[in-house]
Amino acid sequence: MDAGLMRTRVGAARVGELATADAAGRPHVVPVCFALDGDTIVTAVDAKPKTTTTGLRRLANVRAQPAASLLVHHYDDDDWTRLWWVRVDGTAEVVDRGPVRDDAVALLVAKYAQYRAEPPPGAVIHVAIRQWRGWQWTGP
Amino acid sequence: MDAGLMRTRVGAARVGELATADAAGRPHVVPVCFALDGDTIVTAVDAKPKTTTTGLRRLANVRAQPAASLLVHHYDDDDWTRLWWVRVDGTAEVVDRGPVRDDAVALLVAKYAQYRAEPPPGAVIHVAIRQWRGWQWTGP
């Protein structure tokens, strides 16, 4: 999949799946709202009700192991020729406060109406994209 | 989310996101078709056209680091109160041949019409579920 199409699809996606790993290398995956900004992905631990464990796990993982991977994909049960996915791999950082965090929240608020009503109150995860990978059905 | 509902949702899901990690603990995530069988998830590297890298990465990861995590979720851009996810964490194994592999392929063929036309030809990943986690919107 060409670079422009990967970028368009990630930019347009409303939800992705963020994979992180803990210090022992055990993977973890959670759905996230996110925004693409150049070669950066930002996502926040937002105010959607969640368990403490859920909210903190991804932050603890990123602090222990900065490699992270975000997947965006389309599934169509009736027609597998329409399937595609794009994955960005990068280096993640937890940003608790300051302009990088505030800019990330501004991007999220601009993208999601729900965030305008209630902006993410806490830390953001900032992922510097190192690699784009994409796949789509291209025939047997 | 109660155990029965988590099981129902994972059993009914047509696609999930499988997170693995490599020997260095770097996460990887890919959409997968899968089947739930008791406390086991099975998925195959199927015949959908893919790069060699894509097909082999998850297998190499599982061989290096048996921890794996499968996410199933529902996203609704208009109504975040409908969001839910279920994640199963477990111990994965690559099974190249034999009755475990053949039983897994039979489950996948039973679940997906596309696999009836072209059964997955290769290895399967067998995940023994160690932990179920679920979340759904429960109000602010």
Write the layout of secondary structure elements.
Two copies of one chain form a homodimer.
Chain A: H1 3-12, E1 16-21, E2 27-32, E3 34-37, E4 40-44, H2 52-64, E5 67-74, E6 84-95, H3 99-111, H4 113-117, E7 124-136
Antiparallel strand pairs in A: 1-2, 1-5, 3-4, 4-7, 5-6, 6-7
How would you describe this structure to a colleague?
2 copies of one chain form a homodimer. Chain A is of the alpha+beta class and 140 residues long. Chain A has a single domain (3-136), classed as Roll (Pnp Oxidase, Chain A). Chain A has helices at residues 3-12, 52-64, 99-111, 113-117; strands at residues 16-21, 27-32, 34-37, 40-44, 67-74, 84-95, 124-136. In chain A, strands 2-1-5-6-7-4-3 form a 7-stranded antiparallel beta sheet. The longest helix of chain A is centred in the middle third of the chain and has 13 residues, at 52-64. The first copy, chain A, is globular. Chain A starts with a helix and ends with a strand. The mean pLDDT of chain A is 92. Chains A and B meet through strand 1, strand 2, strand 5 and strand 6 of A and strand 1, strand 2, strand 5 and strand 6 of B.
